[in-house]
Amino acid sequence: MPKIRNIVALLLVVGGFWYFYGETYNQFGVEGVFSEIRSDINGIKENPEVIAAVNYASNEIQHWLGELTQSLQENEPQNQNVAEKPQLDAPSEQSFSIHNVELGDDRSEVEQQVGPAKRSTLNEYGIEWVAYHENYQNFFMAAYDEQNKVVGLYTNQDLLASTNGITFKNSRESVLKMTNDPLESIRKGFVSYQIQNNQEYDTFLIDNNYVTIFYDKHEDNSVTAIQIISGELEQKKEKFFTDASAELKEGFEYQLFDLTNAARVNHGLSVLSWEEAVRETARGHSTDMADNNYFSHTNLEGQSPFDRMTADRISYRMAGENLAMGQLSSIFAHEGLMNSLGHRENILQSDFESLAVGVAFNAESRPYYTENFLTK
Question: What is the average per-residue pLDDT within 30-53?
Fold first, then answer.
């Protein structure tokens, strides 16, 4: 919207200049226009304020014309590639399907339907989330077992079909009416892990699968995402926090990046590019928080996010930072950030252009997440 307002304002200014100097431009070009402007100025030499105003205007219109051309060039390609939403069919074997994919489907069948994967990264279950999308449209992730059968699914876009009528149009209240009571804990062996009851998500045991439905507090508690994990896969995960590793760190980073872009596409915003240069800045802050047991945008040396970026020679015109801590995966971290107004505003800031994510783990393998957004 800001770009559209700027373009409209610019067209009004250009229209005014064209009224006075259009004929001159057609005959003599830009140099002729500037020559006539200078001639007009010479005719009113007794008024220095008018001279200054016209000089400023002549410089500004040349600058704005350049910006208009660039803006139109940038916006034109984005409006040409709108992916068609798939026709969603009712699931045949399970209670839920995502992009017409169900738990138990073979990977070859999935990719025959939706195309090759865009990214594969390690997740907290010790296998990979495989991301599929068309420039983050029709985005979902699938996880496969050793036999290449689907054992996990996730999406934060309207790709859900179900046999019980749950869709992304439902509110939490209606979901609870269509299901059994949500789980309060998940038992693994002799340990029972409590499920956080903050009304931002509910986890259900359906068809022996663990189905977590996330809600958007800022959109009338409507369904905003769903994760489906097979009972067998969930039981293989013995601990609440998965043991830290370099591969899991990178997996969480790229997963949070992809989830952020999928959310932006949901709201009609541009896709952010990956800003590799700032990943180490983000990782450094996550590591500092994990190692020193604090959680704040300001580090123990009093540096703000902007101080840290400047110290790392990151140039920017606009920047922002999101933090999360203690969520067991990037999915839960992202959904929590979307329900926090200040963090949500960063994720949905239309003027941001790029993003990098840095993750670190403390001694108990508790993850710390830092997102750094930039506009250069």
Answer: 50
